[in-house]
């Protein structure tokens, strides 16, 4: 036990050392006149954010993410779960906002939650100055920071009607959430006892533990969520991710879960691991699919695809915004609308519809082989995206289109 405690202490020292060594923008105090319930005036007593802006020339997305580093609520992995992640967001046009929240055992709940809610409110209240949109602000957390981000997602509050502080006049609800190997449950056998103790003290009330076991707090108003974990994580078992994802699905909250077979706890961006490092690409895909990497309205599209004069039996149709078709292939990050085609018909709801404006249309014929086509039967009828001659002008509202193709 003594050796384990020593290892945990060394891990905490390492996290603090990483924080001290990280470079980045100057911190901005969330409460310049002093944080509420502060038990001192040291840096650790004054929650702050560092705002990382994309480089000039990077496509503007108007999106910001408040990042909560992990550390068991007793330290902060400020570098690999903060600074590095914010710089990654910058490369895809997103403003990264790294939060220094107060820690246990000196500070207990609700201090950490209040710090995170204040950070979201600060970004939203100062959106114009920061170059972001007030309706495009997400929260992200790693490990215990993931617990904090899920607590924000399930315990946020709306604007205060008679607030004396202008920052309190805006909502603290995040527009989306990203949880990386998160602590979720404090009441279950797979919970993280160190995080629970640092957050709540030695003998917390059962009702408080239940309230902060966030799988029990999900509602239909919980923001859309992306979750990443590894199955062999020995520090925070993957069951934490599974129970939260199940609760999201139960309440019909849009969600995506990626569980990698291999990988230890606390990997951050997992640089150097050719498999595990792909989680950030999956996050990028999810952000783009949900419209956070490009600013454009979406619209419903339905219609018919005819092939050689007959309804195409089975295939797929995609509407790719022309703005995405940059020469480097990366484009503006606008979402793409997809639909299966069955017996000639397709339908895409507005919630995941085509982007309003000019779109290149891609049609794939899966063939007419019974009972199922093989890979050799698949035909890309419209060619590569940037060379396709088939286009559609998508307008707001419902679009009804018919495409007649030859093969």
Question: Can you walk me through this structure?
Answer:
The strands form three sheets. Strands 1-2-4-3-5-6-7-8 form an eight-stranded mixed beta sheet, with helices on both faces. Strands 9, 10, 13, 14 and 18 form a five-stranded mixed beta sheet that branches. Strands 11, 12, 15, 16 and 17 form a five-stranded antiparallel beta sheet that branches. α2 links the parallel β3 (64-68) and β4 (95-100). It is α/β, with parallel strands linked by helices. The chain contains nine helices and 18 strands.
Oligomer: single chain
The radius of gyration computed from the alpha-carbon positions, rounded to a whole number of angstroms, is 23 Å
Report the span from N to C terminus.
Answer: 71 Å
> Sheet with the most strands?
8 strands, mixed
Q: Proportion of β residues?
A: 15-25%
Gross morphology: elongated
Helix content: 10-25%
For the residues shown, what is the average pLDDT? 90
Strand order across the largest sheet: 1-2-4-3-5-6-7-8
Query: Using DSSP, what is the number of strands?
Result: 18
Helical element count? 9
Poorly predicted regions are 1-21
Structural class: alpha/beta
Question: What is the helix/strand order?
Answer: HEEEHEHHEHEHHEHEHEEEEEEEEEE
């Amino acid at each position: 036990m003594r050796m384990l405690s020593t290892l945990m202490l060394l891990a905490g020292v390492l996290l603090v050392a990483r924080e001290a060594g990280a470079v980045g923008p100057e911190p901005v105090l969330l409460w310049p006149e002093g944080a509420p319930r502060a038990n001192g005036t040291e840096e650790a007593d004054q929650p702050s954010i560092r705002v990382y802006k994309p480089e000039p020339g990077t496509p503007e997305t108007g999106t910001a993410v408040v990042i909560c580093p992990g550390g068991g609520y007793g330290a902060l992995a400020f570098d690999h779960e903060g600074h590095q992640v914010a710089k990654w967001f910058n490369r895809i046009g997103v403003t990264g906002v790294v939060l220094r929240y107060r820690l246990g055992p000196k500070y207990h709940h609700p201090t950490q939650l209040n710090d995170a809610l204040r950070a979201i409110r600060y970004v939203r209240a100062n959106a114009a100055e920061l170059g972001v949109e007030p309706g495009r602000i997400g929260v992200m957390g790693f490990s215990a920071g993931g617990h904090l981000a899920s607590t924000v997602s399930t315990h946020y509050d709306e604007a205060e009607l008679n607030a004396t502080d202008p920052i309190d006049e805006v909502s603290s609800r995040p527009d989306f959430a990203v949880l990386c190997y998160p602590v979720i449950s404090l009441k279950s056998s797979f919970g993280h006892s160190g995080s629970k103790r640092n957050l709540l003290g030695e003998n917390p009330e059962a009702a408080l533990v239940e309230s902060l076991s966030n799988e029990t707090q999900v509602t239909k108003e919980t923001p859309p969520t992306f979750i990443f974990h590894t199955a062999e994580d020995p520090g925070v078992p993957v069951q934490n991710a599974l129970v939260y994802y199940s609760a999201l699905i139960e309440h019909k909250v849009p969600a995506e879960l990626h569980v990698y077979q291999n990988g230890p706890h606390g990997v951050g961006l997992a640089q150097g691991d050719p498999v595990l490092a792909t989680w950030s690409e999956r996050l990028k895909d999810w952000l783009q699919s949900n419209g956070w990497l490009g600013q454009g309205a979406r619209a419903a599209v339905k219609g018919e695809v005819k092939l050689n004069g007959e309804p195409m039996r089975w295939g797929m149709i995609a509407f790719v915004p022309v703005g995405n078709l940059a020469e480097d292939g990366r484009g503006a990050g606008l979402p793409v609308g997809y639909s299966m085609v069955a017996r000639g018909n397709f339908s895409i709801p507005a919630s995941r519809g085509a982007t309003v404006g000019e779109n290149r249309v891609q049609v794939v014929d899966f063939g007419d082989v019974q009972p199922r086509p093989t890979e050799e039967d698949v035909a890309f009828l419209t060619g590569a995206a940037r060379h396709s001659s088939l286009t559609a002008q998508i307008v707001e509202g419902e679009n009804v289109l018919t495409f007649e193709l030859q093969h």
